[in-house]
Amino acid sequence: MAAASERPCNPSPLSPEATERRVRRMTLAITCGMAVGAGLVWDSTVGAGVAIGGGLAYLNFVWMRASLQSIVATAAAGDAGPARRPSRLQMAKFFLRWMVIGVVVWLSIQVASGLVGAIVCGLFALPLAVVVEALVQVWYGLNDEPVM
């Protein structure tokens, strides 16, 4: 008999966990594709800039999820007893990610100002992954049987 903490063998492809997993994987795939493409079309420094931007987009997504999960868990725990507010540290972690991204972009500008456009292009990997996931969701909605 499976323990309650184990994941089901065949989760729904439309579940939030499956959707999140696809967005993360697609973000990495788009980042790699854009970085390699930029490196081949322009040069390796542009490809590195795109990779930095895509890495920041991925880090932002993962960090935001963890921060929000912590904040929501704290707020939900208040339902069982006295109302609890998220701690200042939990809230700081949520906003710290923007500071980290800003510092990395600023450092990149200081080191090589030509990379700013490449980094910004890399930051678009996550929104592109979300658009692809929206298309996947539409596909699942139009077809009875999921193909992935």
Task: Put the structure in a nutshell.
By secondary structure, the chain is mainly α. Helix content is 74%, strand content 0%.
Notes on the protein architecture:
It is built from 5 helices and no strands. The chain has helices at residues 16-41, 44-77, 88-111, 116-123, 125-142. The longest helix is centred in the middle third of the chain and has 34 residues, at 44-77. The model is unreliable at 1-6 (pLDDT under 50).
Cα separation of the termini: 28 Å
The residue fraction in helices comes out at over 70%
Q: Please give the largest β-sheet.
A: none
Mean pLDDT: 79
Tell me, briefly, the overall form.
Answer: flat
Order of helices and strands: HHHHH
Strand segment count: 0
Number of helices: 5
Strand content: under 5%
Radius of gyration: 19 Å
Unreliable stretches: 1-6
Structural class, from secondary structure content? mainly alpha
Element layout with pairings:
Blueprint: H1 16-41, H2 44-77, H3 88-111, H4 116-123, H5 125-142
Helix pairs in contact: 1-2, 1-5, 2-3, 2-4
Structure characteristics:
mainly alpha; 148 residues
